[in-house]
Write a structure and sequence with these properties.
The protein has 132 residues and is α+β, with helices and mostly antiparallel strands. Helices cover 45% and strands 32% of the residues. The chain has a four-stranded antiparallel sheet with strand order 1-2-3-4. The termini are far apart.
Length: 132
Amino acid sequence: MQASQDPDSLTAGLAGPGGVDASAELSERMMELIGKKARATTVFGEPITADGITIVPVARAGFGFGGGGGGAGGGIDVRPLGYIEIRHGVARYHPIRDLRGHVIVPLAAIAAGLAAPWIIRSVMKFRRTRHR
């Protein structure tokens, strides 16, 4: 069954006094719709088999939903973690390294350390000229 993206189809058939039940059911429908999209295949696609080797994608998926003040919204967060390689009946996990934690953060720390003396001198110079 294909879930419809049409907002009117989400609210169709909702009942309840004052819209309280309707709101709860709309929330459930929205979470179900968003939850179907939060999967490893959203990032990687389906497992692939070639030459006796199967590659299975591994990802962390989650979704959030909230509403208030007459509005509602949701979002999906799917992050690739790695893949499982199945070869000759043996499975091995291969992580995908995140360059942000291993390269970018240390480089930013080094740059900040090198820039600190220049920033301190500039602030001190500004303070001296401001007090005159």
